[in-house]
Every structure is written in structure tokens, then in C-alpha cells.
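User: Hi! I'm working on a homework problem where we have to compare a predicted structure to a textbook description. Could you give me the structure for the chain below?
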Amino acid sequence: MRKLTGFWYAVTVVMSVALVAFQLYTAGFGVLPDIQQRSVHLFFVLAMIFILKPVKKGVSMNSVPWYDVILAALSLLSTGYMILIYEKILWDPSQWIGRLDMVFSVVLTLMIIEASRRCVGWTFPILAAFFFFYSFYGQLFPSHWAHKNFTFDAIFQNLYHTTNGIWGQMVGLSAGMLAMFGIFGAVLSKTGGSSTFIKFAQKLTGRSVGGPGKVSLIASGLFGMVSGSAMANVVATGTFTIPMMHKAGYDREWSAAISAVGSTGGQIMPPIMGSGAFIMAQLIGVAYLSIAKAAIIPAVLYYEGAFIALHYMSKRLGIFGEKSSDTINAFEAIIIFLPLATFLAFLAFSYTVTKAAFYSTIVGVAAYATCSLLQNRSLRAAVPDSGRLCFGVTMDGAASILTMAGLLAGAQISIALISQSGFGVKLSSLIVKVGQGNLLLCLILSTVVCFILGMGMPPTAAYVLAASILAPALISLGMEKLIAHLFVFYFSSIGAITPPVCAAVFLASGIAESNWLKTGALSVLLAIPAFVVPFTFAYTPALLLDGTLLDIIVSSATAFVGVFFIGVAIAGFSNREMNLLTRLLCFAGGLCLIIPNNSVSFIGMVVSLVGYALSGGFKRMQGTHSAD
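Assistant: Happy to help. Predicted C-alpha cells:
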């Protein structure tokens, strides 16, 4: 973002305050009608994107060039016009009110596409260009993909006049729930969330084998739940934990990989899983807590695999933790954990995510102000301190809203065109046809598409698009909505650590000054269970806590044991170095244990135990070695 001063800085402050105030007011006291709520949201967001985000990195970083002033003005006019006329178009969306209406429909579409490019890169402009061409010239495509050409009026009236277009569900989420969650996340961040989570992780595992690495995994996971972004998480926690790990003895690539894996896992770890899970709740009409409950065991398996591999690798390297002198005082604990507890409590009492985030934000600010007053014992010191917090939350909250809104508005245009042209239905039917109705083959094809989408966009955006084109295919094969969306969600999320385009790895490698390709390979190695478990719960809903108690216990137990042996195989060490044969036995046996078949799991248990015994793994159980 630009670092502005003077007039333009004052403009961004005023607009940030107005945006955050609008989101707080509508979250707490009731939203406006759909199109009006979303047009006011984009009124602020698009203009601020053009003021704060340069046309490309390094260009005009300290000033706003004339062309961005024009783009910001066009954004204000095209969204402001909709705020004024929205009641008129409700009567007949298929008619233009006038020539200005037609012009602004094109202008706003172009502004959103450019804003999304500045926020997340070229993916959405390229997708939009393709789907516009496909919508206008559908008859040029081969038979399976062909459709009747849509007219200019049909396309742009749908985009500008209806909630099937620009003002659709994705922008609706941005203008409500996700904006409020971004402000709540800013409160937790500005009140010291990352440092408190690191201290908490140090108390839990800092003195154990591989303590620095485990601290990174826990702290990254905790902060990732709140930030909802693997990349933001790497920056917030990795700047501290990566040098700490390197100093302890991990090489640069392993340090970066541990941080990237821990940061990515926060997006799939309940109780707060970030923005993607909230979007899922809206898309499938399921309570967020139901999604969080279903995600518990797969998320724990993700971190178990990383922890086991890290533990045994640290034993091999002789890396042990140290006692930390940092303590979490009562004020720090209250400031962070009280708003989190408030958030979960409101969700438990069936409040919406938006309401829960609103009240938790109020509680967070109030808790900080109260603790500041008790610590300083003076209003003269506490009031400015609380004022600085509110200002910081406003600026950071607005910044997080900009990125998310730019991403989702860009996605909304592609989703609208996919829906209008029938492309999503055609792709879903093609996947089912190529997979010949075979669920496993369709799951593999869906995984490949998720990874392709993940190469060019953040995990949340990848999930939004994947959910619109892949989930219907899986549901048509008999999968429940929740399972199909969780499958897509997991593979969209771990795209952040999957080469060749892996944003979390790039950032972590930059901090560690490591080889990013090797870091990416190690990240995938650490997170191998995450690539297997979604296939398991696709066939065995018991891993999502859906089934009889016996099924849940058996499926969970075999999966946990299987992930343990996979972690040992990845580390290549139990109580001594493992040879290739014992590693392969443990790895293959671990995979078999995760497969939802009792006979295969039994074979996997035998194979794993043989490999583990041959590697000397049971010597510790006989008391010949102490790991900690």
C-alpha cells in the first residue's frame, strides 16, 4: 500500500473511519436493503483501493497520480448512482433507466476488475475476460460448451441491476459478515494477539524436544484462526518464530516450512477458521458451529502430522527447547481471550457471525480500555492509549476490508457470468462424465482443479470459485453438501503451501532467506496428511463426527495412529536413523490406516508396527531413552 501524507492521508483516514463506522452501525443495528448495503460498501472500498494501492508495485508509492484520482472518482460515481436509483431498478431490472445507467454498468464492472487486479493479481481479470467472451460468443464453442449468445443488455443488466450480478452473495458477504470479522481481527491484532499467542505457545511446548518449532506451529495456528489468512499469519508470527527456529538449529528451509505449514493450518482449525469457513456457512446454509464441529478431527490430524514429524526430526538434530522468561499477565490474557470467548458464546447462543463479531469487537475494545486504566491508574494516560487503539483498529480494519472486498467483488463477476452462461453446470457434468460416475476419480479431478485455481489466487478466492464449479459435481454423485464443500475448502486452503505457486511459502522463504522451492517441498512433506484426510472423510463422514459413536471412535483412532506413523516416516528417525525400508513400511502402513476400510487398516497397522519395531521405535517405551 502507499504511504501517504498530507491531504491524501487525511482523505484515507476520513474514508476509513466512514467505512468502519458504516460496517459497525449496520452490523449492530440492522443492514440496509441488499443492493443499497453492498453499493455503499463498494462506494468506499473501490475508491480507497485506487487511492491506496498503486497500479503496480513501486509506482507512485508516496502520492496519488492523476489517473488513480480519475478511477476513484469513477468508482464513487458508479456506486453512488446505484445508491440513488436502487429502488427504481427493483420494479424492472431488465430495463435501462437511461443512458447514464448503461454507462455506469460498464464503468463499475471495469473498476471492479481493475481493483481486484491490484488486490490479488491478474487471475480475476483473465477469468473475467474469458467469461465475457464466452458469454457474448457462446455459439463459437464446441457442442458441449456451446450456448446461445447473450446480448450486451442481458449481461450488463444482470450484472448491474440484480443480486445475481455485482451485488451478489460474495459482495454481500464482504459488505456484512467478513467486513465485521476483519474489524474484529484488527482488534485482536492491535491488542497484541500475535505476541500473546507466541508466549502461550512457549509455555506449552517451549521446553520440549523441538520446542522452537512447536512454538511456531502453535502460535501460527492460533493466530491463523483469527487472521483467516496464511500470508498475514506468516508475516505476523513468522518474523519472530523463523529467526528463533534458525537460531535453535533448524536450517533456513525447515524454519520457513514449519512457519508456512503452521500458518496455513490456522484456516482449517476450529473454533475460528477464518473467512473461508464463514463463506461456506452462507453458501450451504449451515450454521457455522456445525462446520467447526465437522472440521475438528481433520484439523487436529493436520497438526498432529506436522508435530510428530517435527518432534522426531528435532530428536535427530538434537534440538531441544529452553525455558522462556516471558509470561502472560492477567491483563494480556483478558484482552485476547475475553473477546474470543465472547465470540464463541454468541455463536453458541445462535447469533449470526456478524452479530457475534460486532459484540466481540465492543468487548475487545472495552477490555483493552479497562485494562489500560487499571494498569496506568490514570484517565490522562488511559484515554489516549485507548484512542490510539481505536485509530489503529480503524486503519487496519479498513485495510483488511479492502483486500477481501477487492478479491470477492472480482470473484463475483466471474461467478455471475459462470452462472448466467451455464459454464459451471457444463464443467460439473464434464467432471462426472470423465470420472465415469466414479467418486474417487472425480475427487482427484476436483483436487487438480483446486490446485490450478490456487496457483493464481488466495485460498479464500480459490474456494469461492471452486465451490461454484466443483461442489455441484460432487454433490450430484451423492456427497452431502457439507462434505463436498469441506473437501473443496481443504484443497483450496493448502494451495498456500503447494508449489509451484505457494504464497505462504514465498513469504516465509523471504523472511528466512531460504530456497523457496525446497521450502515448498518440505512444506508439502510436513503437511502430507492434509492431502490424504479429505479423501478419507469423503468416504467416511465419521471423521467429521457424523455417524455412530463406534464408527467415530474407530475411524478417528486409526487415522490418528496412521498420521503418527506417517510423521515418523517423514522425519526418518525414531530412536535411531531409519533406513529406506523402515521409512517406506511406516509410511505405507500409515496411509493404509487412514483408508476407511477395516481390513486395509489392519494390514496397515501390522506393516507400520513392523517398520517401527525394525527402526528401534519401541526402545523408548522400554525406558532406554528419554525424549524430553
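For your comparison, note the following. The chain has 28 helices and no strands. The radius of gyration is 25 Å. Good luck with the assignment!
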